[in-house]
């Protein structure tokens, strides 16, 4: 499950960021979001039985969810130019999993920063051992992944930022294709693997409190199975503005994923077109409460594949409170 709407939350957070790392000592924030989520996918583990033909879209599932986020930071150094941090990453990076991040960043020059971090698996995600089972209950298994990340923000004070991550993914009990009648090469369906994610972003001021941010993303994932290995290329555009206590972020993304070899189950090489749009709003000092903020989010994303089995869609509407300290 890819949390497209989190990009909006991360973007609106950046409208409040400054080049300096902040005052010395401990700081941070905690957020709790409540919302409605609707998800349609053949990898939705809330729907164990697929009664439709195999090469068809998954069933839609919806419900109310709670989503906590938070980060703790400690700033130090002779000029308050170093910082260590830990907590939940606000952005969908590398694996698409929401991960706990532990990192160190420091100022480079007047208003640039470099950061190094690790994203270990804290809570494992779930998927199907064999996602191609039909007319009977599928069996769940855990997935995990770790990432190493490097960020260079506002390179040479030019508004350009770079993000690079190396990650791995492991499916605990991989059985993809075991249920398919007849001889197929199940080795090509193995989902374990390693990847490299990169993103370059350019921040362009469009006013005293407004910014336009185009970005380019490239993701290479090398799976143990060649039919699961892919190159993904994405472009995005985000508009950020802050008007008094009100902060807004509107963003959109398009990506194309091209897989290495033909999927032996469906007899063709997978190609995905992915699109997502997000809106995020924050009202600072909500109810005149110092350090409190009201957040509202809306996001929608789709994956349109040439193999119907891999089509996905996701909708999220949420509201919550955040506290900064």
Describe the structure.
This protein has 325 residues and is mainly β. The protein has one domain (6-324): Porin. The protein is built from 1 helix and 17 strands. It has a 14-stranded antiparallel barrel with strand order 1-2-3-4-5-8-9-10-12-13-14-15-16-17. A hairpin with a 2-residue loop joins strand 13 and strand 14. It is globular and about 65 Å long. It starts with 5 loop residues before the first helix and ends with a strand. Residues 1-9, 11-19 and 91-97 have low confidence and may be disordered. This is DUF2860 domain-containing protein. Residues 1-19 form the signal peptide. Pfam families: DUF2860. Keywords: Signal.
Mean pLDDT: 88
Q: What is Rg?
A: 21 Å
CATH architecture: Beta Barrel
Query: Termini, distance in Å?
Result: 31 Å
How do the helices and strands follow one another from N- to C-terminus? HEEEEEEEEEEEEEEEEE
- The backbone outline, from C-alpha atoms, is globular
Structurally, the number of domains stands at 1
**Which segments are poorly predicted (pLDDT under 50) over 5 or more consecutive residues?**
1-9, 11-19, 91-97
What's the CATH topology name?
Porin
Biggest beta-sheet profile: 14 strands, antiparallel, barrel
CATH class: Mainly Beta
Keywords: Signal
InterPro entries: DUF2860
Signal peptide: 1-19
Protein name: DUF2860 domain-containing protein
């Amino acid at each position: 499950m890819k949390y497209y709407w989190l990009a909006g939350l991360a973007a609106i957070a950046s409208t409040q960021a400054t080049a300096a790392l902040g005052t010395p000592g401990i700081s941070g924030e905690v957020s709790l979001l409540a919302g409605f989520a609707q998800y349609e996918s053949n990898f939705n583990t809330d729907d164990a039985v697929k009664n439709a033909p195999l090469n068809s879209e998954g069933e839609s599932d919806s419900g109310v969810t709670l989503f906590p986020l938070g980060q703790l930071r400690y700033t130090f150094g002779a000029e308050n130019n170093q910082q260590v941090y830990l907590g939940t990453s606000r952005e969908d990076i590398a694996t698409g999993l929401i991960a706990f991040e532990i990192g160190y960043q420091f100022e480079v020059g007047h208003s640039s920063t470099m950061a190094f971090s690790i994203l270990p698996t804290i809570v494992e995600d779930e998927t199907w051992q064999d996602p191609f089972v039909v007319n009977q209950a599928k069996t769940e298994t855990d997935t995990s992944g770790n990432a190493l990340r490097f960020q260079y923000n506002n390179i040479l004070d030019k508004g350009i930022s770079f993000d690079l991550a190396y990650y791995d993914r492991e499916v605990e009990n991989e059985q993809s294709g075991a249920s398919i009648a007849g001889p197929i090469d199940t080795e090509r369906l193995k989902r374990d693997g390693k990847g490299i994610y990169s993103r370059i972003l350019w921040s362009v001021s469009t006013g005293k409190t407004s910014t336009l941010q185009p970005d380019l993303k490239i993701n290479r994932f090398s799976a143990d199975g060649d039919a699961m290995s892919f190159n993904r290329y994405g472009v995005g555009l985000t508009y950020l503005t802050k008007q008094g206590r009100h902060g807004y972020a509107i963003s959109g993304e398009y990506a194309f994923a091209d897989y290495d070899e033909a999927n032996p189950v469906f007899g063709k090489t997978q190609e995905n077109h992915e699109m997502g749009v997000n809106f995020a709003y924050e009202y600072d000092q909500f109810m005149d409460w110092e350090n409190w903020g009201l957040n509202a989010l809306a996001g929608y994303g789709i994956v349109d594949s040439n193999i119907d089995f891999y089509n996905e869609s996701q909708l999220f509407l949420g509201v919550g409170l955040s506290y900064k300290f």
